[in-house]
Amino acid sequence: AYGWARFPTLADGAKRAALARQTEEYLLAAPGFALPFRRDVLDLPHRGGLTRVPVHVLTPPAVAEKGPVLLVSGGVDSWKMDVHGLLTALCAHTGLLTALCAHTGLPVVAFDISGTGDSQVPMSPDAAEIVRGLIGHARTLGNGIVVHVGISMGGHCSARSGLAGEADAAIVLGGPVEAAFDGGRLARFGMDGIVGNALGFDRQPSPDDLFAALAAFSLRPLLDQECQAPMLVVNGADDIHVPQEDTLVFEGRRATEVHLLPDTGHCAVTRLPEVLEIISEWLPRTLSTLQAGPGAVEPAT
Predict the structure, then answer these.
(1) Partner of 169 for a Cys bridge, out of 28, 58, 96, 147, CB 3.0 to 4.6 A?
(2) How far apart are CA 60 and CA 105, in angstroms?
């Protein structure tokens, strides 16, 4: 009930209080989670100072040695507590792959993107500095290999860290990349208040306000470079928020696999089992190549 009460449309004091109560209830429930859980609070660099970033760590049981870590971020209205079911599914699927990957489990480190949930700063392109700090922290929890998994606007973040070569690999599920920010398409269909809240507006933003703020998020400068990590890009062909171009733009890129699934929408959510299978097939091949080191053959696309 507190999760519904804090729904992020131009959040006010009451909604922020509801988020705090939701967090309290979530932590009270944590001892009953299927996977070992802890909540860590990090102080990470941002704009010359530090910002407080709580993260949720879920670890498959019986981890005998350190392996890769999945860094996971949701979107503007689906925060780390909201995607708990997906996080446990990711842990379960990657846990089944331990024999193939020669690992004993893949922990998940979940965080809220800037401007959402526990974040203390508005959503902005320079919040990429926070993600870099999170990648650095995640490296200390495993064997140094970090795969950034991003969902919706979190997929924008994972696309950025993958294209910049900051994460060792990246999975982009329904992420806006370039076309979604042209003409404010991301803020259509009732998303203007939600996106406005994440951007830090304390009033209903005008279309011009949103278009101006979102234009700066285009990843075209990184798309024009060739320093990217291995990437898996997936979305539904009928997404009303993110145009098909933002998925298809990755076709033909080095070490990149692209899936635009028909008959499903944003993040291919109605075909989630199929998405998890795609991840389960791509991830061990990619991790095997990463662990083989420089000179290894890249995964087939």
Answers:
(1) 147
(2) 6
